[in-house]
Amino acid sequence: MYVAVKGGEAAIDNAHRLLAEARRGDPAVPELTVAQIREQMALLVDRVMAEGSLYDPDLAALALKQARGDVVEAVFLVRAYRTTLPRFGASAPVDTGAMAVARRVSATFKDLPGGQVLGPTFDYTHRLIDFALAAEGETEPAAEAEPRDDAGTCPRVTDLLAQDGLIEPSPPDDGAPVGDLTREPVDYPADRALRLQALARGDEGFVLGLGYSTQRGYGRTHPFVGEIRVGEVAVDFVPEELGFPVPLGRIRLTECQMVNQFKGSGTAPPQFTRGYGLTFGQSERKAMAMALVDRALRAEELGEPVASPAQDQEFVLAHCDSLQATGFVEHLKLPHYVDFQAELELVRRLRAEFFRDSDSVQEAAE
Amino acid sequence: MATSPHHLRPEEVAARQAVMALCADASRDDLDAALQALEAPAAEDLRPPETGLVMATGRIGGDGRPFNLGEVSVTRAAIRLPDGATGFAYHLGRDRTKARLAATLDALWQDPARRARVEDALQPAAEKAKAARYRAARRTAATRVDFLTLARGED
User: Fold this and answer.
1) Which pTM was predicted?
2) How many CA atoms lie less than 13 Å away from B13 in the CB half-sphere?
3) Where are the domains of chain A?
4) Pfam families per the record (chain A) (predicted)?
5) 3-state SS, residue B45
6) What is the CA radius of gyration of chain B?
C-alpha cells in the first residue's frame, strides 16, 4: 500500500535560517559586498557568467555571495533568473577583430602586428603564496608606457595564415538561421554553431578534461595556440522600433584560435585546420579547452575516425552542462522511499528464493 | 511606434549612435549631471523601463558563421518629452534609472536646435571615458614584449 506522507516543513525553514547564518560566517568578520566580489573575485565572477550563460557581473557576484562561493549553485541562480526575463532579440555578431585588447599572445609567431601583449596574467608568476596579501595594504601602481602606433590594430593570426592559403577559411556566413539550444532541444548530429554554444556554457572542468584527453592521445589534433586575446568588444543590437544598430555597451571576452595539423586530399592541398574558443570574461583555460574540443568534434567532417570521447558529440554535448549534470546527480539525495521500498521487497524475495533453492539442492545431495 | 519627429540622415544616425554609445559607457551619475545641466523638462514613459535579455552572438573562427555565445542583460527605456519628441535607450545591465536618463538625452539630442547643448552637457562623461581608455591602453602597452636578439657566442 502507498501512504503519502508530509513533513519536515519546520526543519526546512530552520535549515534555511541556518544556511543564512552559515553564509554570513563569523559576524565579527566584516561582510563582503557585491562590489568587492565583482572587483576582487573577478575570474570567479567570469566563470559564473560563462557557465550561467548570462553576462552581468553584478548579478554573477550577487549569485556567488548567495551561493557561499559554490560555482554550480551560483550558475543555477543565474540560469533561474534569466528564465524570468523577456528576450528582446539577438545581437549583431561581435567583432573580435576590433577588440580593445588587454592581452594578446601567439605561440606560433613571435613578431606580429600589434605585438605580444601580456596584460594581467598569472603566466610567469612563481606560484609562491604571497603572504603579504594577508595583510591589507596598497598595491604598487601598474607601469605605463606610450602605446606604439600599431597597438590599436591586432589582425588575427589566422587571417595572416589565410593570406597564403595555409589555413582553412572559417565556415562562411550563409545567412541561415542560427540554432539556439535554449529554445529547442539539441538534435544529433548538431552543427558546429550549436556545439560552440554548448561548449561556451559548458562546465570548465569537464571541457578542460576533454581537451586534455585529446592532447594525451584520445583524439589527437596536434594543436598550436595561434592566438589568445582578451579584451572588450562592443555589442550592437537592432531594435525593431529604431531599425539601426544601437550600441549596448562593451563586454569582456576571451578568444582562442587553435591551429591544428593539416588536412588535404587528392584535389585540395594540405592546410592547417582550426578549432575555436570564445567565452565571457577572462578565461584562457576555458577558451583553450573549448577550442581543443571544437576541433576534436570536427573529426567526422574532416574524415578522421571517431573513436574517443572528445570526438563524440552526443557524449560531449549531453554531459558538458554543469547545471544539468548536477541536477541529475544531486537528485539522488532526495527522498526515494517508495522506489527503494520496492527494491527492498524484490531483493528479499530473490534471497528467499535463493535459500529455498539451495536448501532443496542440499537435500537432494544428501 | 514613431522613431522620431525629426527624420535623420545617415550621418546623423552615426552621430546618434555615438551619443548612445557614450551614454551606455557613462555612469548613471554622469547622465544625471548632464540632464541637470540641460534643465530638461520632465519626460513621460512611452514604455516603462524594462530589463530583458539579448542573445550575444559571435562568429565561428571570429569571422565565419554566427553562433549563440550567451545572453547579456539589457535594460531599455522609451520616453516622450512634452513637445512630442521621443527618445530610446538600450543598455547592458539592469539600471532602469540610467536607461531612462539616456532615453531622455536621446530625445533632446534629436532636436537639431538642442543637439550642441546636449553634446556639451555630455562632454565631461566623454572626457572621462576617453581618459579611462587612454590609461588602460598605456598600462597594457607597458606589458608588450620587446624581443632581444641574443649574441650567439661565435666570437
Assistant:
1) 0.93
2) 11
3) 13-82, 96-119+150-170+181-326
4) PhnI
5) strand
6) 21
Q: Label each residue of chain A as H, E or C.
A: CCCCCCCCHHHHHHHHHHHHHHHHCCCCCCCCCHHHHHHHCHHHHHHHHHHHCEECHHHHHHHHHHCCCCHHHHHHHHHHHHCCCCEEEECCCCCHHHCEEEEEECCCCCCCCCCCECCCCCCCCCCCCCHHHHCCCCCCCCCCCCCCHHHHCCCCHHHHHHHCCCECCCCCCCCCCCCCCCCCCCCCCCCHHHHHHHHHCCCHHHHHHHHHHHHCCCCCCCCEEEEEEEEEEEEEECCCCCCCCEEEEEEEEEEEEEEEEEECCCCCCCEEEEEEEEEECCCHHHHHHHHHHHHHCCCCCCCCCCCCHHHCHHHHHHHCCHHHHHHHHHHHHCCCHHHHHHHHHHHHHHHHHHHHHHHHHHHHHC
Give pLDDT, residue A135.
86
A42-52 vs A57-66: helix crossing angle, rounded to 10? 100
Report chain A residues whose CB lies below 8 A from the CB of B110.
none
Tens of pLDDT along A239-266?
A: 999 999 999 999 999 999 999 987 777 7
| Residue entry with cell 551561493 | A67
**Distance (Å, whole) CA A62 – CA A59:** 5
Smallest CA-to-CA distance from A245 within B154, B16, B123, B4 is with B16
Interchain proximity B88–A102, CB inside 8 Å: no
Predicted confidence (pLDDT) at residue B6 exceeds the cutoff of 70: no
pLDDT digits (tens, 9 = 90+) for A205-221: 999 999 999 999 999 99
CB of B58 within 8 Å of a chain A CB? The answer is yes
Q: Which chain A residue shows the shortest CA-CA distance from B65?
A: A173
Residue of B3, B4, B25, B74 to mutate for A, most A C-beta atoms under 10 A: B74
A241 to B1: CB separation less than 8 angstroms, yes or no: yes
A166 contact B CB<8A: no
Q: CB of B59 within 8 A of CB of A41?
A: no
Q: Look at the block and give the residue holding cell 606560433.
A: A108
Cβ atoms of residues A192 and A271 within 8 Å: no
Taking the C-alpha atoms of residue B131 and residue B115, their distance in angstroms, rounded to an integer, is 24
